[in-house]
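Table S2 (continued). Query chain:
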Amino acid sequence: MTSDQLEFRKIDETFRPRIHRYLTRMVGEYEAEDLTQEVFVKVSQALAAFRGESQLSTWIYRIATNAAIDRMRTASFQQDAHRSGLDEVNGTEDQEVWIGEGMPSPDQRLLRKEMYECFERFVRNLPPNYRSVVVLAELEQLTNREIADILGLSLDTVKIRLHRGRARLLEELKGYCRAEDWL
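Corresponding output:
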């Protein structure tokens, strides 16, 4: 195996799970499988041209984000998303949603999972420009600076979109995911 192949293999092993999770949150599980493959084909093809002007993770997330936004713009995606509702929660069974100390009880785990799934459903229904920022900030835990670099936006634009996206989510969540049902 050449050094380039070894380097790509390491990148693939490191980033594929993160990118797949991110794309699942952006476009749903069904689309994420193919899109993840497409992203890593692009990464493989362009790796030699990567100049290191940004972090490798930023560059890969940018490729993934562009691929996701391109996919969301297609008529077939919009029809499929409308038919399937995209509000089905996909791929969250394996997610660890517990933040507290110690091992949660089965009831606590179920409650956290339901809350997370409700949140994730509404994130998927945000317009793409808000969805990408909210997913990167809230679900991928990236900083505003990292998000700006990934999306090729100014820091102020990221802050505005994040604020508007969160406000929109809050309004939607108030009507559907009532915290008092879980307390």
